[in-house]
Each structure stands twice: as structure tokens, then as C-alpha cells.
């Protein structure tokens, strides 16, 4: 099949590359000339494990091309994916101007039937708005399909190639047939393609992310309670997770969820509910609890040292909002750095991928180490904000020599409590004994 993907952000690029991998011819379009030129010369602008290999393979086999020319991209393409940003506007609702603008541009260019697929996370009712634009600006028949993405950063290629499910919001039989053929290679194991109406599909995406954010937040509160009552959150997590109705996954407590999706989508669902005069109380609490969870590690530091941290030097391991990404959007690490600096401390950070993005925010206000060991040199304490695998089994003999004091505040529960006591550390983690 010939496919156009409008928008070469994270979702667009993963979608385009993975669709090319099963033999489709994909043209990715973007208005950013710089980005398109880079990709034309073989440079992948994002870090995502496994993507680089597929990106180069499909470019070299002429199945994946890049252009700024929308007309040439959609010419002969039967399916047009829209993977455009929907940033929150001032009051937390999703800004649809990119999507609706692109729909108008496409409507002005098409000359035969197309399936218009929306991959962006959009409020309920967006497919209707896109349909209305096509009706207004062209007489050519189109079907508009809502096809939310459930990719996780860091494992996006795997998620796309073997999705738990594909959700397709359309009532058009013609579009259903085309989209099932397109996705058939990805669900060979028998995972479902779920057809539903557009609104249900649009809401499914928000409901999924908000449910997961709620699950994490619930566990964070259980962890906070564990500390107060003297219970161990790891035991409680296993104790409840073995019940299949609850499930083992997404129960790891930490220092709050971050990233470009959960915070934005939970906000947007609350806003959408408000618009329908529905008070989505549980999600409002989730936002509130998550905001305070982001400062939990700093609260522990202050409790230990007092409010004035001047003269103290901290090492911070982990900047990215989660492992296997360079993405620092809404990352708890940013709150930690800001708080440490505002209380007079100095900070040296290390992250396998996130340092460049962090430099753009903090510049030379903090130091950037080349590796985890360099970061802890002379530190009064080590703080851990991201559970990169490389942090899980470090050489504590080396660390103990390099650090000024053996003090660790761990926001991701990386180490065994007994081991840390044996090594002579003050080790303060989340929801576990001191
Ligand atoms: C999330 C969803 O998991 C994807 O299904 C969805 O497609 C995506 O948002 C999106 O809307 O585009 P992502 O933001 O990449 O994916 O990251 P997750 O792996 O879901 O992690 C989100 C946050 O939850 C991170 O800050 C992570 O540290 C935190 N988390 C996750 C926990 O604190 N505990 C857990 O047990 C799991």
C-alpha cells in the first residue's frame, strides 16, 4: 500500500518506519525543512531503541522517503496518517489547530478516495470536526478513522510491531477493510483489531493513559503509607499484583509519573469532563498526588539535612522521565534539580541519554558527568531519579571511595535494603524501611 504520514515527531516517525517494514511505501511529510533534510541524509532525529535499524533498512530499500511537499506525498497514497502535535492550550485542553489545519490542506489537494487516519491523541469529537472540514473543502469522498497509538517510549518499535490491540474508530465498511489489511501483519499472533465508533476510540486512548496514571498514583500513595506504618511496599506490590484482576505491571512506586503523555492526557480528560459539567474527582486527585510525589525525594533530603543545603554537593543519577529515552519532559529530575539549586546546593548529574536536553534547560548551573562514577565524586549524597539498567548493579567499592558520605536517596528502589545496610549506607528509598 502507499501511505503518507503527516508529522515526523515521535509517533509519526515510529509509525511511518514500522509501516514501511511490512512492505508498504511510506512518505513522511513535515513542514520542518531542517528535519526533513537530516532524515533524507539518513540521520534519525530521535533516540528510540531498535528504530535506527528499521529506519536505515527501509530507506535503503526505497520504502521510506521524506519530503516537505504535501502534494507529492499524498499523491497516490491511499491512506493518510496524521501524527501531529496536540499541545495543551492555556486551560489544559488539547490544541487542535495543527490537525484541523492539516485536514484543510489535504482536502484542498486530494483527487480520489482516501482514508484519513488520526494517530494523535485528541479529544472526543475530533473525528467529527475533521470530517466537517473535508465536507467543507472537497467533494471527494474520504473516510476519517480514529486510530490511537499505545506506544511506550523506549519500546515503541516492539509496541508497534506487536501491539496488544489495534483500536480503529470508524463505521465505514470500506475503511474497515483497508485498515484491517494494513494491520493484519502486526496482529498475526491473534491480538485483536477492535472496531468501534470514532468517539469511543478517541476516549479509549484517554481512558487507557488515565487509568495507568491512576494505577501508578495509587501505588505511590500506598508506598507513602508503607513508610508511615512500617510496611514494605515491595511485599505489598507483589501481594496485590499476583491477583490477576490487578496485574503485576505498572505497580512500581516512584517519584511520580512524567513524560509527554500521562500528565497531558490526564489534564485533558479532566478538562473535557469539566466541559460536559462532569466532575472527574478521581483524576483531579491523581494530578494533585502526582505533583506532590515529584517532591518526595527532596522532602526526604530536607528532613535529613534541614532546609538550607548551601555547601552541600549532590550527585543525581537519571534525568530522563524513564529509562531508554532521552525525553526529559515533565521528568521528576527537573523538579529535583530546581529544588536543590534553590536551596543553595551544587549538583552533578549523569544520564545515559538525557544530558543534552537537560543542558538546554539548566546550562552551566549544574555539572554534567561522563559516567555514573564521575558523577558521585565528592558528593555528600547520591539521588536516583531514573531506573536505567546501568545503575542497577554498580561497583559500590568504587562509589564508597568516591563519595564524601555514604548517603543515597533512591526514588526508584534500585537496591536491596540488607545489602545497603551491610555496605554501611544511609539508604532512603520509596515505601521501604530505612
Ligand atoms: C505512555 C503509555 O504507557 C503508552 O501506552 C502510551 O501510548 C503513551 O503514554 C502515549 O500516550 O503516547 P510513556 O509515556 O512512553 O507511555 O511511558 P510509560 O512507560 O507508560 O511511563 C510513564 C510514566 O509512568 C513514567 O514517568 C514512569 O516512570 C512512570 N511509571 C511507570 C511508574 O512510576 N511506575 C510504573 O510502574 C510504571
TrEMBL record:
Enzyme's top EC category: oxidoreductase
PANTHER family found in the cross-reference section: UDP-GLUCOSE 6-DEHYDROGENASE TUAD
Gene3D superfamilies: Cytochrome c1, transmembrane anchor, C-terminal, NAD(P)-binding Rossmann-like Domain
Domain (UDP-glucose/GDP-mannose dehydrogenase C-terminal): residue spans on this chain: 315-417
Enzyme Commission designation: 1.1.1.22
Amino acids binding substrate: 150-153, 205, 250-254, 258, 322
Family: Belongs to the UDP-glucose/GDP-mannose dehydrogenase family.
Recorded superkingdom: Bacteria
Gene Ontology molecular-function annotations: NAD binding; UDP-glucose 6-dehydrogenase activity
Reactions that this protein is recorded to catalyse: UDP-alpha-D-glucose + 2 NAD(+) + H2O = UDP-alpha-D-glucuronate + 2 NADH + 3 H(+)
Active site positions: 261
Classification via InterPro entries: 6-PGluconate_DH-like_C_sf, NAD(P)-bd_dom_sf, UDP-Glc/GDP-Man, UDP-Glc/GDP-Man_DH_C, UDP-Glc/GDP-Man_DH_C_sf, UDP-Glc/GDP-Man_DH_dimer, UDP-Glc/GDP-Man_DH_N, UDPglc_DH_bac
A Pfam match: UDPG_MGDP_dh
Sorted UniProt keywords: NAD, Oxidoreductase
Organism, as annotated: Pedobacter psychrodurus
Pathway: Nucleotide-sugar biosynthesis; UDP-alpha-D-glucuronate biosynthesis; UDP-alpha-D-glucuronate from UDP-alpha-D-glucose: step 1/1
GO biological process: polysaccharide biosynthetic process; UDP-glucuronate biosynthetic process
Name this protein carries in UniProt: UDP-glucose 6-dehydrogenase
Binding site residues for NAD(+): 30, 35, 86, 121, 153, 264, 329
